[in-house]
Design goal:
heterotrimer, A: about 230 residues, alpha+beta, Arc Repressor Mutant, subunit A, about 45% helix, B: about 280 residues, mainly alpha, three-stranded antiparallel beta sheet, two-stranded antiparallel sheet
């Protein structure tokens, strides 16, 4: 035992100069960051000409077997505790507010059918969606107002945010579970008009052809506490 | 049926149960627990235990209508949604039972039934994926980010700005002000009447002896360049003080020295004044 | 050398499958913790009978060469960015700031009257020029120390830089308007003493007859920013 330890120490000492400094920098940046970092941000801190993607792959591999993993969410990179250790950590975690069944369902509809209007959500659920449900989702930061549908009444369209992907550990919207089956069974089109044949949900911030931008003030809808809003009006 | 097969992560409070006595299916339903008529239909459909594609809409419509009938008998308050659905299903049922005929809105009963089945499938699939989504490890529940992130400190480097206009205005203003200030300085070489009067009053004071005005002036104001202005102002001030009866002035001949002295009663008066002050 | 590398590979390979699950747990706990953890807390989360101290020593050693180190603070354990990478955690931001009136005035005087000493600036302005004003001007890079005046006290002479010309869009210092132009533009108006003049400025880097070169060390005066100034803004 003491032999092994000694050997490791020696190797460790020799290793130090050999392990690429870039890897140390990358690891320090990812450890320190408060939120996922994109490759551009990382590259800006690394020596010029470094292959960030290759380094990330190496680091991801190094961390794969550890208690902390390097994962990609919303196209960005972040370190997170290994999912199999959840049992260990949940005890001290402050469990986020549990969403109501209506909110979970609405969230899923927004995720899989976005950009989607309230009327379309109601059509799928077969029930009126209370204002509160959408407010709760806007408050979580997982759902956002995207724009307005170019249709009578110009209804607001909803979509998911990067925070949504980050919370559920999704690299992109295409990683949504069961998305392929939904597409296969033709259940994803929802209420989209036939001429807008976009069978996949998209959180692309660029507005679709049938969307137009929000007006100033629209964004307050879900973000300002309601009492202020009524006073204003 | 039971609520357990609902893909919800949260079951509603079981506030009211309705038991239908018909017997063939012990249908226990909690009206409060349903998220609208479509949800109720989906629950009923599951009891057929067949793929939603092969569901019998006719049987489903019957079940739904039976449920609504029972609920109404028990005077349960049903939202309008449920009743609208009931009316529509009753209509659909009648259409399905009748021999096919062209419908006023262009849809056959078959198509309408398929559309309903499709809606049910869509709701069911969204529930399934919602459930799958929720079983993913969630941030802050199953996986955690760094508990003590080390935020990046910002070192602020000032980037100074000024315009050529600022520069020139400041320069012109300063040089100009300074130049004008010098002009004012040179004016001080002139002795004003007020200054002369104050000086004479101070110099003569309580002296009741005759003394020459020249004597005072030369003694205290020696700078030659100022002699003319001092003499002129002093003379004018002297005459004024004489007119006020505070000074006496005496001259032997033209261009002879001027003798001045304070008047006794005037000094007393002035002293009294000073005492009061 | 090649021997060492080989040894490392072997050791590394052997290590991975052998790496104790306890190490993963330890590293996940330390990563997710919101504050440094003491050995008792860590032990409570680990299987009974595990030697926490030995595990921590091993983990500390593993992380020693990395971008993040396991450190002990106040008897508790925490992961921290390696000290030599602290620079990664700072970012320089430029903050636009306007020069004070005194600074603009002093700058103008330096521009027109260079080479000029502080006493001469004060004479022209008619007020005392604070050390800070000249420091700020040196910091802008628009004013530089030219040399020393051959006069009692050997005062430093100031002049403008190329940076000054480029910031104010001047091709040469002689582009600065003279008295006639200043009058013409209305910047100077009214009666002025006959001897009033505006010098024809020159930033010729060659020292004048009454100037002598700076000594080594003089240049440090205004070029090294004091530590606190950076935080100030």
């Amino acid at each position: 035992m003491s032999n092994v330890a000694e050997m490791r120490v020696i190797v460790g000492d020799r290793e130090r100069p050999e392990r690429a400094e870039e890897l140390r920098i990358l690891e320090a940046l990812l450890f320190a960051a408060e939120e996922p970092l994109d490759e551009k941000t990382l590259a800006a801190r690394l020596p010029l000409g470094v292959d960030v993607r290759a380094l990330l792959a190496q680091l991801q591999n190094e961390y794969a077997s550890r208690g902390v993993n390097l994962v990609r969410v919303a196209g960005k990179w972040t370190l997170r505790t290994a999912a199999d250790l959840a049992w260990l950590l949940t005890r001290e975690a402050t469990v986020p507010r549990k969403l109501s069944r209506a909110a979970v369902e609405t969230l899923a509809i927004v995720a899989y059918h976005q950009p989607v209007t309230r009327a379309e959500i109601e059509d799928i659920r077969g029930v009126t969606t209370s204002k509160g449900t959408l407010d709760v989702l806007l408050e979580t930061g997982w759902v956002r107002l995207r724009g307005r549908r170019k249709a009578p009444g110009r209804p607001v369209t909803y979509g998911t945010t990067e925070g949504f992907l980050s919370h559920f550990g999704l690299e992109a919207l295409t990683d949504l579970p069961g998305l392929d089956e939904l597409k296969g069974s033709g259940l994803i089109e929802g209420a989209l008009p036939a001429d807008f044949n976009v069978p996949v949900p998209s959180d692309d911030p660029a507005l679709r052809e049938d969307e137009e931008p929000l007006e100033p003030g629209d964004l307050d809808l879900g973000l300002v506490p309601p009492q202020d809003r009524t006073e204003e009006g | 049926m039971s609520n357990e097969d609902l893909p919800a992560d949260e079951l509603p409070a079981q506030s009211e149960f309705v038991e239908l006595g018909s017997g063939e299916t012990a249908l226990v339903v909690d009206v409060e627990g349903f998220e609208g008529p479509l949800d109720l239909l989906l629950t009923l459909a599951r009891q057929q235990k067949v793929d939603l594609v092969k569901i019998s809409i006719l049987a489903l419509a019957d079940q739904y209508l039976t449920f609504i009938e029972a609920a109404r008998k028990l005077r349960l308050e049903l939202a309008a949604d449920y009743l609208v659905m009931a009316a529509w299903l009753a209509y659909l049922k009648s259409r399905l039972l009748l021999p096919e005929q062209p419908a006023p809105d262009g849809f056959s009963a078959e198509e309408m039934a398929n559309a309903l089945a499709q809606r049910l499938r869509r709701l069911e699939s969204i529930r399934q994926v919602a459930e799958q989504l929720l079983t993913r490890p969630q941030l802050g529940r199953e996986v955690f980010q760094r508990g003590q992130p080390e935020p990046i400190a910002e070192i602020k480097r000032p980037q100074w700005s000024a315009t050529l206009y600022d520069l020139l205005t400041a320069y012109a203003m300063r040089r100009q002000t300074k130049a004008r200030a010098y002009v004012r300085m040179s004016k001080r070489t002139v002795w004003s009447l007020a200054e002369a009067r104050e000086a004479i009053e101070r110099l003569i004071g309580r002296s009741f002896e005759w003394s020459t005005l020249d004597h005072y002036l030369l003694e205290y104001l020696v700078e030659p360049s100022q002699r003319t202005t001092v003499l002129a102002s002093s003379f004018a001030a002297t005459l004024e003080l004489v007119r006020e009866g505070r000074l006496e002035v005496h001259q032997h001949a033209a261009f002879a020295p001027l003798y001045i002295r304070a008047r006794a009663n005037a000094v007393e008066g002035a002293a009294a004044e000073a005492g009061n002050g």
